Every structure is written in structure tokens, then in C-alpha cells.
């Protein structure tokens, strides 16, 4: 197809198709006119010419001349009529053939989209030779691919949710069976363990609801200019007891000049609680966590760095995916649902910022960086 040059473009194909119809029409007209004037016209005209030659008086000459002219006119009209009819039929056939050839890819796209609408997401169309239709077909295939991926994600999500719900439910039914059979004593300790499982279910449902909100963009943000330091201080003092109970050293660093950002104060705190909470959860006793605020030109960063279990390089790209856990059993034991970071990153994005993670590797600690747009000094 590459050798077709401009005929790869639909525009030139349509022009060429019209030209073919015109050329076929004109050729048929010429041919038919030629055939009729060569074989039909001479026979009838010759008879009239003979009449004219034999005419004796002026009246007979006039009659023969009129008859000759009529015959000539009729012959020409018949020739043109036959030629025109031939051209119409030829033009119709070649036009239909060409239109079919041009429209075939569009018909294929139309029937494919119908099959996709019926739920067959693996459907793809062949990319046609003409440039414009190739663009349509390529975009169509990309759309079909995106739909297929969304469908796969949906199926995976349902599977994950079912799996997450099963763990606490299995534990709860185990406790209940044990209580009914008298294997477990009905003392406050057993009920406290059962309550932990119920809390886990509650947390999961809350997280799922929050996830659905952030992913669909249905979160109300109160975006304003505010100083970052008091928010970080509040989060750190809120989590300090937890860090101290694990004998973790929790330090903060701020730049000399105050840092103002343009974001939602409560959502920023929510993201930081998640990051510092994770740092506490995934750092063994005696480790250190540092929260550092850095001011950029148009943005500000909050870095949460720990000396904990770190993240292997192969896990980093998936860290923000729903339900992803580097070590599922460890995270689940500590009550993690694996969607905290997904929610946190969506919140950062919704505020015009970003959330990224880095780690030199397993057992070498990790750093999470929350970036937020800097406030315009005029907004403060
Ligand atoms: P979870 O509720 O399981 O902690 P998150 O979405 O908050 O879910 O985190 C996803 C996964 O990322 C965790 O299961 C853990 O494997 C990894 N992770 C998050 N924060 C850290 C950290 N500070 N150090 C090491 N791994 C981390």
C-alpha cells in the first residue's frame, strides 16, 4: 500500500473515484456516439439524401430537406440518448463498486462497535490502507483495548474485594463456631479478638467507599492557601505516641522560610497520616522516621523517609495500585487493606499535586514524597 502515494489519503481516493466514474461515462458516450453515427445514422440519412437528389421542383426540394434535417436530428438524439443511458449504467456500476471499497472499513468498524457494545471487548478491526480511515481504525482499536482493560480491572476488583472480605469473615465465623462448640471461652478476650475482625471489616468498607469516591472524582475539596508546617506538626504529634510505642525516632525538618501551599488542608493531613502511619507500620523497632518539608519554585514537597523494610525495585511500579501489597501476609497482619496509597495518590492528584515513592531496596528504608502546588504569595 505504501507505493500508492497520495492515494493513501481518503480525500484523493474519493476524487479518483469520481474521476473514474466521469471517465467511464465519457468513454461510453464517445463509444456509443461513434457506433450510432457510424452504423445507424448513415443508413437513414443516406435515404433522405437520395430523396433530396431526386427532387425536381422547389417544393419537393424543401420537403426532402426538412425530412433530411428531421432524420439527422432524430439520429443524433437517439445516439446521444443511447450513449447517455450506457454512461449512466456504467457510472452507477463503477460508482457502487468504488463506494463499496471505500466504505468497507467503515462497515467493519460499525459492526465491530456493535459487538463491543454487546460485551465482546477483545474485538479489533483491521487497519485499512487509507490514511484517514487508518487513524479512525487505530483509535477505535485503542478505545477497544482501553475498554477491555477497564473490564479486566473491574473483574479483578470484584475478586480482590471478595478476597479481602473473606479473611475477616472466615476469622469471625471461626470464633463463633468455637464459641458455640465451647472451644473458646466466652470471655472479654475472645470478644476483643472478634471486635478486631469487625473493625477490620469496617475499615475495609470505609476504604472502599473512599476509593470509589476518589477514583470517580466525587470528592469535595476545599482548596485554599495555607501554611504547611502546622499541618505537618499536627499529624506528627497525633502519631508520635504510636511511633514511641515502637521505639521509633520521629523527627521533622522545615525550611527557614514558611512554606505555603494551595491545597485542601484536611486532605493533605489525611495523606500525611497515611504516609507516616505506613512508615511506622513498616519500620522495625528502634528505627527512625524523618518528615521533611522542602520548598520548590512552584511547588512544595513533604518527604516521609524511614529506615524500615524498604521496597524492592520490582514492586515500586505497582505500589499505588489498588490492593497491592509487597508482602501480603505482613501487611494484612497489621490491618492494611492495600488501598491506602491508592487513595492518597488520587487525593494528591485531585489537589494538583503528586505522590511518589522511592527505595534503595529491601531493608534499606523508603521515601514517599507528597508534592503540592505552592500558594501564590497574593493568596496568602
Ligand atoms: P496497606 O494498608 O497494606 O499498608 P497501602 O496502600 O498503604 O496499604 O500500602 C501498600 C503497600 O505498600 C503495603 O502493603 C506495603 O507493602 C507497601 N508500603 C507502603 N508504605 C511502605 C513503607 N513506608 N515501607 C515499606 N513498604 C511500604
Care to describe what's here?
By secondary structure, this protein is of the alpha+beta class. The chain has helices spanning 10-54, 58-117, 131-180, 188-215, 228-245, 265-281, 328-333, 340-350, and strands at residues 223-227, 249-253, 260-264, 288-295, 299-306, 354-358, 366-373. It is elongated and about 140 Å long. Adenosine-5'-diphosphate is lined by residues 274, 278-279, 282, 306, 308-311, 319, 324-327, 331, 336-342, 366.
Task: Give the key terms.
five-stranded mixed sheet; binds adenosine-5'-diphosphate; 380 residues; elongated; single chain; alpha+beta; two-stranded antiparallel ribbon
List the helices and strands and how they pair.
Blueprint: H1 10-54, H2 58-117, H3 131-180, H4 188-215, E1 223-227, H5 228-245, E2 249-253, E3 260-264, H6 265-281, E4 288-295, E5 299-306, H7 328-333, H8 340-350, E6 354-358, E7 366-373
Parallel strand pairs: 2-4
Antiparallel strand pairs: 1-3, 4-5, 5-7, 6-7
Helix pairs in contact: 1-2, 2-3, 3-4, 4-8, 5-6, 6-8
Adenosine-5'-diphosphate binds at residues 274, 278-279, 282, 306, 308-311, 319, 324-327, 331, 336-342, 366.
Structural class, by secondary structure, is: alpha+beta
Range of helix content: 55-70%
Q: How many helix segments?
A: 8
Series of H and E elements: HHHHEHEEHEEHHEE
Portion in beta strands: 5-15%
Spatial shape: elongated
Task: Identify every distinct bound molecule in the structure, by name, code or SMILES.
Answer: adenosine-5'-diphosphate
Assembly type of the chains comes to single chain
The number of E-state strands comes to 7
Distance between the termini: 62 Å
Gyration radius, to the nearest Å?
Answer: 41 Å
Low-confidence stretches: none
Q: How is the main sheet built?
A: 5 strands, mixed
Mean pLDDT: 87
Adjacency order of strands in the biggest sheet: 2-4-5-7-6
Amino acid at each position: 500500500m505504501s507505493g500508492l502515494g497520495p492515494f493513501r489519503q481518503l480525500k484523493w481516493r474519493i476524487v479518483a473515484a469520481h474521476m473514474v466514474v466521469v471517465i467511464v461515462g465519457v468513454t461510453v458516450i464517445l463509444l456509443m456516439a461513434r457506433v450510432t453515427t457510424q452504423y445507424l445514422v448513415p443508413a437513414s440519412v443516406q435515404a433522405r439524401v437520395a430523396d433530396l437528389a431526386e427532387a425536381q421542383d422547389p417544393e419537393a426540394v424543401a420537403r426532402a430537406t426538412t425530412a433530411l434535417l428531421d432524420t439527422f436530428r432524430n439520429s443524433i438524439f437517439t445516439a446521444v440518448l443511447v450513449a447517455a443511458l450506457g454512461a449512466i449504467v456504467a457510472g452507477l456500476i463503477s460508482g457502487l463498486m468504488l463506494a463499496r471499497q471505500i466504505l468497507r472499513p467503515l462497515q467493519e468498524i460499525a459492526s465491530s462497535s456493535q459487538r463491543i457494545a454487546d460485551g465482546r471487548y477483545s474485538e479489533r478491526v483491521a487497519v485499512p490502507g487509507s490514511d484517514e480511515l487508518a487513524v479512525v481504525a487505530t483509535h477505535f482499536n485503542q478505545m477497544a483495548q482501553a475498554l477491555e482493560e477497564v473490564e479486566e480491572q473491574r473483574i479483578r476488583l470484584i475478586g480482590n474485594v471478595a478476597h479481602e472480605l473473606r479473611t475477616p469473615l472466615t476469622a469471625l465465623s471461626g470464633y463463633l463456631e468455637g464459641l458455640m462448640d465451647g472451644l473458646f471461652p466466652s470471655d472479654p478476650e475472645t470478644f476483643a479478638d472478634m471486635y478486631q475482625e469487625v473493625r477490620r471489616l469496617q475499615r475495609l468498607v470505609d476504604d472502599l467507599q473512599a476509593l470509589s469516591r476518589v477514583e470517580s472524582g466525587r470528592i469535595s475539596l476545599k482548596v485554599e492557601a495555607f501554611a504547611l508546617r502546622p499541618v505537618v506538626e499536627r499529624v506528627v504529634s497525633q502519631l508520635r505516641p504510636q511511633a514511641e510505642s515502637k521505639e521509633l525516632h520521629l523527627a521533622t525538618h522545615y525550611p527557614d522560610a514558611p512554606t505555603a501551599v494551595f491545597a485542601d488542608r484536611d486532605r493533605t493531613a489525611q495523606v500525611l497520616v497515611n504516609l507516616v502511619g505506613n512508615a511506622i507500620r513498616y519500620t522495625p523497632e528502634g528505627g527512625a522516621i524523618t518528615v521533611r518539608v522542602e520548598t520548590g519554585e512552584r511547588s512544595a514537597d513533604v518527604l516521609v523517609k524511614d529506615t524500615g523494610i524498604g521496597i524492592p525495585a520490582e514492586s515500586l511500579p505497582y505500589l499505588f495500585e489498588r490492593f497491592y501489597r509487597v508482602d501480603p501476609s505482613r501487611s494484612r497482619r497489621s490491618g492494611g487493606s492495600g488501598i491506602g496509597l491508592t487513595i492518597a495518590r488520587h487525593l494528591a492528584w485531585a489537589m494538583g499535586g503528586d505522590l511518589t515513592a522511592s527505595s534503595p531496596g529491601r531493608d534499606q528504608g523508603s521515601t514517599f514524597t507528597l508534592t503540592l502546588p505552592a500558594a501564590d504569595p497574593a493568596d496568602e
